[in-house]
Amino acid sequence: MISKVSSLEKLIPDRRRREVGCWLGTIWSRWKNNYRYVSDERLKSEFKRLKHDRGISGDYLKENSRMVINCAYNLRILGENQWRHLNKK
């Protein structure tokens, strides 16, 4: 829905839409603005409630943070590539 309203879908190549949707879903499900000032323990408790600890051995807060950073990085790279492509026209 948001991609249609913002014309985001015009910027995302068809072959990458599913992947971009996964990246956005990962970020959206793991980051909320009100998480900015909570303690690690509170965030761990929230991730456990949301079942974001499943299948992760070790520090699931660190792994979820890594997932968000990787997805955000991938979105940035895709955006930069699309920007360059659009500016060449």
Shape estimate? elongated
Estimate what percentage of residues fall within beta strands.
under 5%
Count of domain modules: 1
Output mean pLDDT: 88
Share of helical residues: 55-70%
Number of distinct beta strands:
0
Radius of gyration: 16 Å
Distance between the termini: 28 Å
Return the structural class.
mainly alpha
Oligomer: single chain
Which spans of ≥5 residues are poorly predicted at pLDDT below 50? none
Number of helices: 5
Order of helices and strands: HHHHH
- Main beta-sheet strand count, sense and barrel state: none
Summarize, please.
With 89 residues, the chain is mostly helical.
How is this structure best described in words?
This protein has one domain (14-88). 70% of the residues lie in helices and 0% in strands. It is built from five helices and no strands. The longest helix has 29 residues, at 60-88.
Notable characteristics:
5 helices; mainly alpha; 89 residues
Helices and strands in order:
Elements: H1 2-6, H2 8-11, H3 17-30, H4 40-49, H5 60-88
